[in-house]
Amino acid sequence: MGCRLAIGTQWGDEGKAKIIDYLTRDADIVTRYQGGANAGHTVVVDGKKFIFHLVPSGILHEGKTCVIGNGVVIDPIKLLEEMDFLNIEGYDAYNRLLISDAAHLILPYQKAIDGAMEEFRSKKIGTTMRGIGPSYSDKCLRIGIRTADIFDNDYLKERVALALKIKNLQLERVYNKSPFSLDEIMDILITFRKKAGHLVCNTQHFLHSSLAQGKEILLEGAQGFALDIDHGTYPYVTSSNPTIGGALLGTGLNAFNIDGVIGITKAYVTRVGEGPFPTEAEGIDEERLRVNGKEFGSTTGRPRRCGWFDLTLLKQSILINGLTSIAMTKLDVLSGFEKLKVSTGYRVDGKLIDYFPASFLNKAEPVYEELEGWDQDISHCQNFDELPENAKKYINYLEEKLECPITMISVGPERKKTFERDSGLKI
Ligand code: IMP
Fold it and tell me: What is the pTM of this model?
């Protein structure tokens, strides 16, 4: 193995951090490639909860190098807060992290515009208000500020002044909000340079030379397939590409560098924010999934919408990402359901469709099959054989339908509650 990719396959919040933490044991380098502090990756170690927004969760492993790739949008204030917290906890983020010099920075005017645009929309997206969309759009407009820019004061001032000229007009005249001063933005950037400037480098070169030296790289996705700006439920998506294409663009690695793609998949489905969600459960079922699964956003605290496993969504995610295996998380949350629904396809205007539509998902009515549930608490299970028969049947059924091996299963938030499994699937 040289480079493996761990990717969210649904609407984010699949429990990626826990699986990435597990996979980090075999890696030398862990790299984030897209998104920003909209992500909230939770790892529980010895009962202590760590929530990562920007720093790859690999930082919890001694001796591993962590990289924030060029595709990530970095809020410098949040990143410093996170690094300071990790330092206090005994993890040396100031020495084990590298930050791409081509990554874009998120500044307060972008967060203000994120909030103002949400107020403006009659149909809200429900963004995390972390400035993600405005930052990626400024990148495309070529008025973004990159980490590389912070080292030359005159150039930096020129770039910030240009951005503010446009953004302040927008804030004041379109949204009726207060403008930002050049000095306050420069202060943030200079503080960032002083504290973290030594970590900024050409990470594309670092990653390629590490591969050449035989190092193992793990790429850590944020959000998930259905939130992808190209492949997800537009406009109810994030502004980056969590899918495999984003991993290549956001690191500078090429397709031939990827040796395996692990799709992290929750045993049911959740979504935060607005947008279509065909298998959304109702009433007591939804509430039970939410409560058992502690389905509240780790970045915003919002209750997540919860629903049944969606094979159509997953099949599309497998195709687009080229998944080589699946890690299934939160199987324990399904204990106690008498029946488990699984959507095998959609009916749209009376017609059956077996793909994930880009444009009319709001019209899709799921077609369900029901499987028998199980009562037992499975959080103590340490291998596949220990699971109740109906839990095994659930996994075997999904694997057969998906035609992708389910090789890891997680049955609780703690690090140790993950086991591997030999898949019988021949693909
Ligand atoms: P943004 O990424 O803040 O622009 O939000 C766009 C949409 O993506 C909203 O529906 C958010 O709730 C959703 N979103 C963004 N990040 C995450 C995440 O890490 N997990 C789940 N949903 C997310």
Answer: 0.96
Alpha-carbon distance 156 to 171, whole Å? 21
CA of 302 to the centre of ligand 1 (A): 11
Measured CA angle at 155 (ends 149, 157), to 5 deg: 95
Amino acid at the residue 246: G
> What is the SS3 assignment for 37?
coil
Which residue type does 403 have? Answer: E
205 as an active site residue: the answer is no
Q: What 3-state class would DSSP assign to 400?
A: helix
Which residues does 363 contact at the CB level (< 8 Å), separation at least 6? 348, 349
- How does pLDDT run across 226-248, given as a tens digit for each residue? 999 999 999 999 999 999 999 99
Give residue 224's Cα distance to chain centre.
Answer: 5
CB 227 near ligand 1, within 6 Å: yes
Instruction: Report residue 11 as tokens.
Output: 């609407």
CB 113 within 8 A of CB 127: no
Does the beta carbon of 132 lie inside 6 Å of ligand 1?
Answer: yes
| 273 ligand 1 Cβ < 6 A | yes
CB atoms within 10 A of CB 64: 18
- Is any ligand 1 atom within 6 A of the Cβ of residue 128? yes
Which residue has its alpha carbon closest to ligand 1 atom 10? 273
Query: For every residue of 235-248, which 3-state class applies, written as one string?
Result: CCCCCCCCCHHHHH
Q: For 350-363, how does the pLDDT look when each residue is reduced to its tens digit (9 = 90+)? A: 999 989 998 889 99
